[in-house]
Amino acid sequence: MTETRRTNLIQTLFPSVLSGVVLGVIGAIIAGVIVAHFVPGNSDATVVAVYTGWVIFFFIGIGAFNGVWKWGFGRREATHAEELELAGKDQGLWRYFRYTTDHKVVGMQYLVTVLVFFFLGSMGAFMIRLEQSVPGAIFFTPSTYNTIVGMHGILMIAATIIMISGPFGNFVLPIMIGARDMAFPRLNALSYWLLFSIIPVFFSTLALGGFPTGWTGYAPLSVQELTPGMDAYCFTLIIFAISTTVAAMNIVTTVMVMRTKGMTWGRLPVFVWGVVLSVILGLTAFPSFLMSQVMVLMDRVFETSFFIAAFGGNNWLYEHLFWFMGHPEVYVIALPSMAAAAEITAVFARKPIFGYRMLVGSLVSICILSVLVWGHHLYTSGSESALDGPYMLDTELISIPTGLFFLVLVGTLWRGRIWITVPLLFVIGMLVNFVIGGITGIYLADLPTDEILHGGMFVTAHFHFTLVGSMVFGFFAAFYYWFPKMVGRRLNPVLGKLHFWLFEIGFVGTFTALFYAGLQGEPRWSANVAPPFVTANLIASLFAILIAVSVFVLVYNVVTAVVRGEPAEANEWGAKTLEWAVPTPVPLENFKDLPEIKALPYDYGATPAKTGSDSVVDAPLQPQAES
Fold first, then answer.
1. Which of these, 139, 267, 386, 468, has the minimum number of CB atoms within 10 Å of its CB?
2. Coil, strand or helix: which one is 287?
3. What is the CA radius of gyration of the chain?
4. pLDDT digits (tens, 9 = 90+) for 36-81
5. 318 near 377, Cβ under 8 Å?
6. DSSP string for residues in 410-448
7. Euclidean distance between the first and final Cα of the chain, in Å?
8. 28 CB burial (10 A radius; 0-12, 13-18, 19+)
């Protein structure tokens, strides 16, 4: 009996995240010792070797290569029972700590990781506002402050890139299209654990001197920076780019080949369109960023000269490579958030989406136009590009399909039977903030005004209104909307509304004050606030307290819901997309019999759309309880 228990314990712990961490640390130490011995005096080479050893041996320990080895040496496909075991069947909560292929497990892993990233990133933001609440740089040294700004920026950018496509693109999207799983379940797990593996790499920069370059990591400064914390920055972004690429290929393939019968491209839910267009845009833009970081590491480790002008390099090369990703990346974040907002608006207006084809066309147009605007970030770089005029025109053209998105949401809400819920509040907040972010962006799209405002707090405020005030609000709308389906529990609606109002009031107060500071001429990246900008920064920092409080309200709401929240219904909101047609909790293989689709899932107030063996019916205006 003792031997059996010991065997079961070993099978449980290996492979798992525990065995992955143990082997990863061992591999990192071995790789570091070997490289330090053969390449003495090159700390960058040693650090990169440590990170490489960590990632490779972590994946060996977590069992990511087990399927490949079994197939390669056993020469047989895995049985259905083995696939179910790999998907986490009958493993309880422990399946979330293993290399599990079930798309719902991967979605939950992404969701928890995103929430942790947001929490840590928001604490970094609060430290920034603390430093700028009074003049004198009394809380942090300028170098430490720059590292905090950089880490906050990278953490929040990474979180926002995956905040919709990671959790909801994995958990909800396959069910939405009537599929039993993703096209490549093992690659799905790989994409998440690649993300997980870079968490210790990223935070190790604190022990390695940080990176004072800010979140953009501009070369040649990043090449000339002596602290090895810069290596952690580069390695983190390389693995992150690989993770998002793997996930994007999986999502595109899933939607292309695994849609259920009758789920034509013209019947896809808007959310599916948003996620697919987002990941296609990521596949287009992110490789350039990946290569820029590889080049920086090569300059640091092998002393090449991609970016050092004295040795034939060019710093503009980095700027082009970075911003070819850096501006489309805004729309990689925006597209799924906008699509989720449209999905939620139709549900709580109890109306079909106003102009479904127009909305899809606007999302496609944004996807195409966003690839052509990166050059407006180089207006003040000194490159004197002959394409400044076309960059200005294209940047302004994006406002047309974006305006169509607003038209669709307002048209959907118009004369609807509005049900004010927490998800809809966040959608409305998103629209309000997006208007402010869009209007202020016009001044940065045009060269004459950008010459004045570039590099100042006005840009910071605009950027945050666009990404946080708009897209993160869209994430929270999706979070409150799909939480009952994903977790099976209801969030407290009163706490949810408190979270919204604290966040919205605190956010608008903080960044409106920074708009004013920017118009007065305050530059970015300054730890020491100059006297003319003290009042505006103090006001911004006081309003930021409300944002911090809202974060803890959310944390309390989530924890209490998971521990003792009310069980959620299968169709909590009376919605018509397929994820609400399956039981809660969702079965391992989603559908017993695959449904057949015969209409768009937005016919509220009309005859229910038949979906094969299932029928999604129109729910009452307001169910008995909301989450």
1. 386
2. helix
3. 25
4. 999 998 999 999 999 999 999 999 999 998 877 877 776 677 777 8
5. no
6. HHHHTT------HHHHHHHHHHHHHHHHHHHHHHHHSHH
7. 46
8. buried
Give dist(CA 478, CA 489) in Å, integer. Answer: 15
Quick one: which of 458, 596, 613, 587 has its CA closest to 180?
Answer: 587
When pLDDT is averaged across residues 12-27 and rounded to a whole number, the result is 90
- Of 412, 316, 301, nearest in space to 50 by CA: 301
Instruction: Indicate yes or no: pTM above 0.90.
Output: yes
Return the CATH number of the domain spanning residue range 100-564.
1.20.210.10
What is the phi/psi pair of residue 198, to 5°? -90, -5
| Amino acid at position 190, single letter | L
Helices (H), 39-96: 43-62, 66-74, 80-86
Helix 493-519 crosses helix 534-564 at what angle (to 10 degrees)? 160
Domain definitions of the chain by residue range:
1-98, 100-564
Q: How far apart are CA 372 and CA 390, in angstroms?
A: 9
Q: What is the dihedral of CA 85, 572, 605, 409, to 10 degrees?
A: -90
Minimal CA–CA distance to 571: which of 627, 622, 619, 608? 619
Higher pLDDT, 137 or 297: 297
d(CA 459, CA 377): 11
- For strands 614-615 and 610-611, give the pairing: antiparallel
Q: b vs e for 269-298, b when ≥16 Cβ sit within 10 Å of the residue's Cβ?
A: bbbbbbbbbbbbbbbbbbebbbebbebbbe
| DSSP 3-state percent helix, strand, coil across the chain (nearest 5) | 70, 0, 30
Cα 362–364–366 angle (5° rounding)?
70
327: CB partners within 8 A, 6+ apart: 370, 373, 374, 376, 377
Q: CA separation (Å) from 619 to 45, 406, 485? A: 61, 26, 16
Confidence at residue 52, expressed as pLDDT on a 0 to 100 scale: 97
Residue with tokens 């083995």: 82
Question: Residue 463 has which token pair?
Answer: 């950027």
Distance CA 116, CA 162 (A): 13
How many alpha carbons lie under 13 Å from residue 372 in its C-beta half-sphere? 17
Widest Cα–Cα separation across the chain: 79
Structure tokens at 537: 């920064």
Q: Contact, 430 vs 470, CB < 8 A?
A: yes
Tens digit of each residue's pLDDT (9 = 90 or more) over 598-618: 999 998 865 443 433 333 333
Q: What is the pLDDT of residue 384?
A: 66
The residue among 585, 570, 574 whose CA lies nearest residue 622 is: 574
Which of 185, 199, 23 is CA-nearest to residue 99?
Answer: 185
